[in-house]
Amino acid sequence: MIFFLAVEQLRLRASPTQAAKIAISRIAEKYPSFFGGIIVVDKNGNVGAACNGMGTFPYTLASAEYPDTIVKSVNCTDNGSDTLARYSLSFYICAILLFNYYI
To answer: CB 3.0–4.6 Å: which of 9, 53, 56, 102 could bond 19 by disulfide?
Structure first.
């Protein structure tokens, strides 16, 4: 599962951005037309995101650090997919992962 992989990367001391990129790239390796994104948040509130198959992936943040909601975005990887019609395995993943314990 993409979420498990991202949490495992956090446990191995990856940043949220690194964990998100690794998780997305693992799916994109097997399913090049994959269309989706993930948001990863570590126990310190650091945020990272990654995506595949779209130009950019916008996401919204709100916290004590950002009391007014802000919209951020990341540029996506694209493994050869150019239109939504080509997606035989087309799904969208967007999740916030909270990891509260490092081993």
So the answer is: 9
How far apart, in Å, are the Cα atoms of 36 and each of 23, 31, 45, 78, 96?
Answer: 11, 11, 22, 11, 13
Angle of CA points 8, 11, 16, to nearest 5° = 80
Domain region containing 85: 2-99
Please answer whether residues 45 and 61 qualify as being in contact, where contact means their C-beta atoms are separated by less than 8 angstroms.
no
Give me the CATH number covering residue 18. Answer: 3.60.20.30
pTM over 0.70: yes
